Amino acid sequence: MIKKFIHQFASPKTYLFQVTRAYPYIFVISILIYIISIFWGLFLTPEDFVQGNSYRIIYLHVPASFISQALYGGMAIASAIFLIWKVKLSAYLVKSIAPIGAMTTFIALISGSIWGIPTWGTWWAWDARIVSTLILFIMYLGLISLHDSFANYEKADKFLAVLVLVGSVNIPIIKMSVEWWSTLHQSASITISDKPTIDPSMLYPLFGSMIGFTGIVVCLVILSSKLHIFVREKNKSWIKDYV
Amino acid sequence: MSKFAFNSISEAFTMQSLNGQNHGLYVWSVLAIVFFTLLITFLVYKYKLKKISKKIK
Q: Is residue B23 part of a domain?
């Protein structure tokens, strides 16, 4: 029954038509939320007592870090679906998410390094959180190169899915690195179980920037997956009608 | 939310903190990097999609 459901709603054709319809709405709403939240965070929130105004980088750094890990989680789920139920769209999504994941991890690393200069007095430290995030970035690049190195797409999809699942061990390591090891990086300000340690006046724009950035990244994943579907399905008659 | 954290545009630009350090350079450079990275990524995908659409047609 699950297999039938997945196959019915996860054909590349259905996906393409659905996301094309949703794309403009997601794009406009996300951009608006993101701009308002960034403006709120940069100009309307009070200065931090310890970090001064450099803490405002949080509104750019945290959404990128959160999404870079969430995208890998999404790739791992899509890989499992592909390997278990052989859903073609899942394999397409794994390949499409990887470059966007690399881009968001790049933003997280660069923004973190710049934030480190006034806060820690250094742009880089061999700290567990930073190194595990760097490994995530290298993994994204490795996965993209691996898929591109195969001439046979089906083989490439299988290898990619297996490697993504193996690499997913890094995600809990990134998340827990600040708890397991003594790190320069502060521990999480927002957790599911405890009350946030960040003041509400700073917290609301942070939530807004995370929601807005997530929407923008979803739009990029839609574009990337569209491109990959075009490449893989270019000889099908429906794609000619769609274009 | 309604109160501005800075008294003037130049203060917002330099983002001088209570400890006397200017943090504007860090904040604005991160903002620029995020903006241009997103913009370039969007433009690259739009261009690639246009190119492949022409090929398919």
A: yes
Q: What is the pLDDT of residue B34?
A: 98
Under a CB-based contact definition with an 8 Å cutoff, are residues A72 and A108 in contact? Answer: no
What pLDDT shows up at residue A236? 85
Distance CA(A78)–CA(A89), nearest Å, equals 9
Domain contains B42: yes
Contacts A–B by Cβ distance under 8 A = 104
| CA torsion through residues B47, B50, B53, B57, sign | negative
| Domains held by chain B: number | 1
Residue B8 lies inside a defined structural domain of this protein: no
Task: Annotate B8-18 with b (16+ C-beta within 10 A) or e (fewer).
Answer: eeeebebbbbe
A77-90, pLDDT tens digit by residue? 999 999 999 999 99
C-alpha A125, offset from chain centre: 23
pLDDT in tens, A2-54: 666 666 678 899 999 999 999 999 999 999 999 999 999 999 999 998 899 99
Three-state secondary-structure class, residue A48: strand
B22: domain range? 14-56
Tell me which of A19, A54, A106, A140 to substitute to probe the interface with B (most B C-beta atoms closer than 10 Å): A54
Indicate yes or no: CB of A43 within 8 angstroms of CB of B4: yes
Instruction: Fill in the DSSP letter of residue A43.
Output: I
- Is B45:A220 a contact under the CB 8 Å cutoff? yes
Give the C-alpha separation, A23 to A167, whole Å. 30
Task: Give the end-to-end CA distance of chain A in Å, rounded to a whole number.
Answer: 33
